[in-house]
Amino acid sequence: MRVLVVGGGGREHAIVWKISSSRQVDKIYCAPGNAGISELAECVEINPNDFDAILDFVKYEWIDLTIVGPEEPLSRGIVDAFEKEGRRVLGPNSLGARIESSKSFSKDFMRRYGIPTAEYKVFSSYIEAGDYVRLKGLPLVIKADGLAAGKGVFIAETEKEAMDALRLIMKEKAFGAAGDKVVVEQCLRGEEASFMAFTDGKTIVPMASSQDHKRAFDGDKGPNTGGMGAYSPAPVVTDALEAVIMETVMKRTLKGFSSEGINYKGILYAGLMIQDGRPHVLEFNCRMGDPEAQPVLSRLDTDLVDIAVAITGGRLGEIDIRWKDDASVCVVLASGGYPGKYEKGKPIKGLEEVKSLKDVTVFHAGTSFNGNDVVTSGGRVLGVTATGKDISGAKDRAYEAIGKIHFEGMHYRKDIAQRALRRT
Ligand code: AMP
Ligand code: GLY
């Protein structure tokens, strides 16, 4: 089988890595990929949002299956374009992807189907949003409606912070048209978890639980990022809680889609806040989490290609999906300055040495080649991922590997998985 993976971050490296062990796969392509992915797949310089070019490539290279990693092409309709041409693709169509690409759609959807979430209101007027902030009192959470790479959410503890966020999103348009509307919502307190599931629109099967670390600095301080690290399993998601999440969140969501005539296929990701033992949805994503995909796929014990083919064929119910008992921890190494401005092109040292370490995989995110050297080319650069018999062992191994890697300005959190360890 010939497979194309669309995207070029740590999540896509983890997908490519996982399918590279599939017996069914003869050849993997990745568009556009990165330096690490190029060791396992042929990287092709095609923009993930140029669907004509991608479809031409798929036809020309006789690709049997395309797996789409990031949200942007999904929300712009890559799956719709593939389905029109009768090509096999893993991911939801653009109507389904609205669950991520519009927070106002997603919140209204949750309200319609009784999915637990924070109280909220949607505004397209800056003045009305400001009035609501003053009426409600703080703390509040202010969210740009559209896609903002995980950076359009502000937890406002004071009125000034709330007004600054509204101004940044709605007046200064820091996220472009994504800020035409805002969601202002109640601030929930508790512990977060990422809950992902495979679905073919009829059957929904949970993936191993995980938790990411969104803030830039240790102790959950600093601005939100795309994610600075993740681990799996997440002890906060007990078997009993998983059952509640499946009933009140995942199955209700699937039922909601089907009531609205949307055949949602692919991955459904619920970002949850567990407050007083009950799950509340903070956001839905229409794809795997990044970096959650790295530790979660490290634990997947079933062929991902079998799963993908079953999903696209509407036969997910026939597959037995298994997870390894091991735990896995991924620590993101970021460029100095991320999630703000950062420099690129810094040579990365130590990658060869780390390759010999057992149970450690370095997933590349923002890397490229400068001649023969691997250099930084993005905010999140590497996801150093280790497995072990428990979270503590996996974490130690990941940090041990990080000790051997270096690039100028390298920044990472030293407390990834601490939350899980505090529970055990
Ligand atoms: P989102 O992109 O909506 O998941 O928001 C990004 C991050 O902001 C979440 O992972 C939480 O850490 C935080 N967040 C979002 N909504 C809320 C909320 N209602 N209460 C508390 N924290 C939130
Ligand atoms: N790590 C959070 C996300 O992928 O949205």
Helical/strand content category: alpha+beta
Count of DSSP-assigned helices: 14
CATH superfamily of the largest domain: ATP-grasp fold, B domain
Binned, the helix content reads 25-40%
Strand content: 25-35%
The oligomeric state is single chain
N- to C-terminal distance:
43 Å
Number of strands: 22
Shape: globular
What is the CATH fold-level name of the largest domain? D-amino Acid Aminotransferase, Chain A, domain 1
The number of distinct structural domains comes to 4
Strand order of the largest sheet: 3-2-1-4-5
Bound molecules: adenosine monophosphate, glycine
Radius of gyration, CA atoms, in whole angstroms: 21 Å
Weakly predicted, low-confidence segments = none
Sheet with the most strands, sense and barrel status: 5 strands, parallel
Q: What value does the average pLDDT take?
A: 97
Which CATH architecture of the largest domain? Answer: 2-Layer Sandwich
What's the CATH class of the largest domain, please? Alpha Beta
